[in-house]
Amino acid sequence: MPASGPSWPRRSVLRGWSTMPDHRRTITLTAVLAGLIVVSTVAAPMVSARPAHEIPVSEVSTADLAEPDADGWAEVPASDVPLSSAPSSVPNADDTSIETVDVQAARTDQRLYVRLEWQDATRDTNASTPRQFADAVAVQFPVNTSSRPPIAMGGPDNRVNVWYWSGSTGTQELLAGGAGSTTPFQNPTVQANASHSGTGGNATWTVVYSRQLDAPSENRTDLRTDGDLDVAFAVWNGSNGERSGQKAVSEWHYYPFSGGPQGPPYETLLWTLAGIAIVAVVGVTSFGIYRTRGAE
Amino acid sequence: MSTDQQDEQGEDDTLVNVADGVDHQVAMVMDLNKCIGCQTCTIACKNLWTEDGGSEYMYWNNVETKPGEGYPRGWEDSGGGWESSEHSDRSPGEIPDEEDYGRAWEFNHEEIMYEGSDEPLRPRDGAEWGPNWDEDQGAGEYPNSYYFYLPRICNHCTHPSCVEACPRSALYKRQEDGIVLVDQDRCRGYRYCVEGCPYKKVYYNTVSKKSEKCIFCYPRIEGEGPEGETFAPACAEECPPQLRLVGFLDDEEGPIHKLVNEYEVALPLHPEFRTQPNVYYIPPFAPGQHTEGGETVDIDRIPRQYLRELFGDGVDEALDTIDAHRQRVRQGGDSELMELLQDKNPAKQYRLEVFDDE
Ligand code: SF4
Ligand code: SF4
């Protein structure tokens, strides 16, 4: 995280040090230090970039967002989400080729839109010979938004919804409770639109998913949640033979649906506690020094 | 997965090694000395199971010329199977290329039949490979060239590496008879089974985008036919020389058990892949070599080392045993083995109802 408090007012402190009587100097120093610490602890989370795993969601009134190149996306901030090979027992699991995906998200009072963009020089949309695999991308949410499932396709007691798009089969909505348990919903309620643009190394895939906020049925994530919404991403490069567990995945991130942009409550709480603790320590220490000097 | 009943059976009733959790194991013995390479089996299978879109290139049953590249081309070197007899580590395999299976060619029927063309009937675009492209080529030099036909289906292995390869457990070995199947609802077309089978007997359907394989004609052996009768797999029933025996490996009264476990003359193909196949072969005999002058000499025409590469070291003893029994019968003696290898009684050739009462 970048340094974020006001710069250290070294000179005024030194001047104060040289012109004041001892005990006054100590008190003043203590006050200044305490003030600075309070300012910096409170300022840090407000001034800094958002927390590393937060992906901002723009609240918009009307949506022109369904298509990858829709105008509405120009206003929506993007997050660079790093990807790495998923731990998996399938052959060549550590041979993945996509390293990052750009994620944008926007919410109307009816739908959530998620736009994913990543670099892939080849447009692999065909799986119609034995050796061909299609490019694909997935977004994963917990079914029960109040707890965070295991990142690898959830767990038996803590399942995940997966929005899946592949160049050869189109969109699927999946339910999974652990690796190998993925099952498609019969009637997908997720829409996806995809486009591949550019050429060579700069060519990119862009896929926009959207779904209504209300859970359309049991076992589907309620996107109207007031809490933060955990979310994770996966990308497959078909021409590299990527499929199944051979995929580039993110860690869990979250959409901050619980309120303002300052991050989740626990983080603010931690900062506040840390600030109070530092102030207390400095105060006690200064008081000790003051007493010691006074006794001289 | 095994039940008490199976454990008892495993210990008390039989010494036959069937897979854990499997009650009985279907098996087939093919006598390579009788195969005439007519492909009736191939077509019987194709008409039944692989006529639909996406399966044109598949031959669940194929008959290839050995020595030869086989189908798909080079399958013997395409990896798969197990690293050791512990069956814990699989060796990685490769998915064969479309060209190695051979594409369905388009022919110039149109031009010749309707447009008066004088061209010979031939494939339209460059046909450079296909199943049986090297048919009857074999190896060796005149007058000592040699070849034989090798019919192949899925071996419904006791340790199927195709099953182990699937991260979704879409492939499974049926409890009642050990037939290996692909659950079409679970398959997501990842093709780890295709690369993981050392015999390349799982195929990817290019339309349904799921994997498919030989099902040992289970609806026929379950009596799902028109009259409710039980039939052996179509490849066996349709074979003109009736060279296939079908039954259960653990049916100790049946000919398969005798040929495989008692006389040890029926051998699995490429045992070094360690999947423990349940299709067994009576290895081929061939006349001795000829001299330039046309005399027969006592030198194997099919090099013994080549047969060892295909069927393992057991091939020497298997051929010796058959030879000894032949001599015995020639000299007027009796041999159960010779009768088994010649038996035309269908009740014995196909023994599929022995465990029906269980
Ligand atoms: S032959 Fe191949 S497909 Fe058939 S059971 Fe054995 S490993 Fe599986
Ligand atoms: S039908 Fe019988 S003889 Fe003909 S190719 Fe098949 S196994 Fe050989």
Question: Can you walk me through this structure?
Answer:
The complex is a heterodimer of chains A (296) and B (358). In chain A, helix 1 runs antiparallel to helix 2 (22-47) and helix 2 (22-47) runs antiparallel to helix 3 (265-295). Chain A is globular and about 85 Å long. In chain A, the strands form two sheets. In chain A, strands 3, 6, 7, 8, 9, 12, 13 and 14 form an eight-stranded antiparallel beta sheet that branches. Helices cover 23% and strands 26% of the residues of chain A. In chain A, a hairpin with a 3-residue loop joins strand 7 and strand 8. With 296 residues, chain A is of the alpha+beta class. The model of chain A is unreliable at 1-21, 42-48 and 260-265 (pLDDT under 50). Chain B is globular and about 65 Å long. Chain B has helices spanning 4-13, 40-49, 98-101, 109-114, 161-165, 192-196, 218-221, 234-237, 255-262, 304-311, 314-330, 336-342, 346-349; strands at 26-31, 62-66, 148-152, 171-173, 180-182, 202-205, 210-213, 244-248, 267-268, 279-282. A four-stranded mixed beta sheet of chain B has the order 8-1-10-9. Chain B has a single domain, classed as Alpha-Beta Plaits. Chain B is built from 13 helices and ten strands. The longest helix of chain B has 17 residues, at 314-330. Mean pLDDT of chain B is 93; it is low at 1-13. One iron/sulfur cluster (SF4) binds next to helix 2 and strand 3 of chain B. Chain B: Residues 68-99 are annotated as: Disordered. Chain B: Keywords: 4Fe-4S, Electron transport, Iron, Iron-sulfur, Metal-binding, Repeat, Transport.
The CATH class name of chain B reads Alpha Beta
Overall average residue pLDDT of chain A = 83
Q: Level of helix content of chain B?
A: 25-40%
Structural class of chain A: alpha+beta
The radius of gyration over CA of chain A amounts to: 26 Å
**How much is the average pLDDT of chain B?**
93
- As for the number of domains of chain B, it is 1
Number of strands of chain B: 10
Strand content of chain B: 5-15%
Number of strands of chain A: 14
**CATH topology-level name of the largest domain in chain A:** Immunoglobulin-like
Helix and strand element order of chain A: HHEEEEEEEEEEEEEEH
